[in-house]
Amino acid sequence: MTTRAASHAGSWYSSRGTTLSNELDQWLAQVPDSMDGTQLPVPGARIIIAPHAGYSYSGPAAAWAYKSLDLSNSKRIFLLGPSHALYLPGCATSKHSKYATPLGDLVIDTATVKKLQDTGEFDKMSTSADETEHSLEMHLPYIYKMLSQSFKSAAEYPPLVPILVGNTKAEAEKSYGKILAPYLADPTSVFVVSSDFCHWGLRFQYTYYLPASPSSAAATSSGGYSLKTRDKDPTDPLIHESIGRLDKLAMDAIETGKHDEFLGNLRETGNTVCGRHPIGVVMAAIEVLEKEGKVSGDGKGKFKFVRYERSSEVEEITDSSVSYASAYAVL
User: Which of 197, 298, 308, 302 is nearest to 259 (CA)?
Assistant: First the structure.
């Protein structure tokens, strides 16, 4: 029985349980109690996409996804996040039995982890790789907070299935989607997908820009091109407005529910959506269920984005920003 340490506590978010709990409560309280006439949580919303930056940046945006999440029937929570440091062509699971948070420990569903390992398609993270990665950890306090509001005691909390998703190709995403589809079909399974959106700026090596009136010199069919340091800071539109358009194109592609549509958008714009691979795996899993007739009607299986924010409003080429978006899908 080993426990992964809350390695980013004290830097990316508060290591003080009371302070952290109060911050989460405040951010959740800032989200309306209903959206589009539907009381939150959204009934049947068993999948969310939420950001994983430091809480001072993305904590408020993530609250929109978590307040939408329906945990009423949950018996197992899958957490999928992208690998930032470990080179990984596929997916990996944790070797630990618990994940620590300043609020309390979350238990790992070791039985389900073993079943995934038995497929032969999942690597196993070392403790070092597990604790270096932040994309999974940044969701743990929110998961613990929501479970504390939904269950009477920690002994009743559904266990966690953490999955680190590497630099997967399209076919690999579809393959992992097939493996996870039966779990997704289970009405007691919840899926949390960790992703920030556009990382814009020279430090991210991404300065793609969508002008209001694309010229014949535009680099791709999307009408955009990469800004260079020597270029004049554009104003039509301002850079942050272009970033918003880039992210809207990505979110629209995700909302179609078509995995290939999302992949096509990424190829066209190069948008630096860091969780594109876990998003792709879950979209592929939903498509498997659609083909099997297990998801149909009333927009089920389609993500709905409910919040979008940026860390700053870029106007100069030397500036940078990261975008944060929250979404849910009903199954």
Answer: 302
